[in-house]
Amino acid sequence: xxxxxxxxxxSIVDQIEQLHQRIAQRAYEFFRGRDGWGDSFGxxxxxxxxxxxQPAVELREKDGTxxxxxxxxxxxxxxxxxxxxxxxVVIKASTEHKHSEDKGQVHRCEFTAGQVFRSLTFPKAxxxxxxxxxxHNGMLNITVPIASEATAKRVEIxxx
Length: 160
What we know:
Immunoglobulin-like; 5-stranded antiparallel β-sheet; 5-stranded mixed β-sheet; 2 helices; flat
């Protein structure tokens, strides 16, 4: 079982914005390739499919802890990063697939190279500093305790 390094962030907005910009650029390239004619929404979806895959995930809550499982088959633990805030988690990984000619002629290949990107918002605030991630047999498991709820308190005013 491999441990996965995690980074605590104040915000994941920058990461999402960078990905959004890469998808927008690729969609624009598709659009320009047709001299500005066609389906811009279809271009966006095609660019997103080409650049990013989203792993299947399961988020559970039990005994004051969230457990997030993400399927990342064929990915090396060293290629996975997990960024976590009290509200969100971002899972990123790079995938690579190459053919070597000495292994024979490839007639069909559905493996892809690219980036895995998945962001989730926790239903409740978490203790990001206490999060742990492990990767085993293609499954990334992240556990993080739910933050103690802040409670309101009335403050008495003392007369001077």
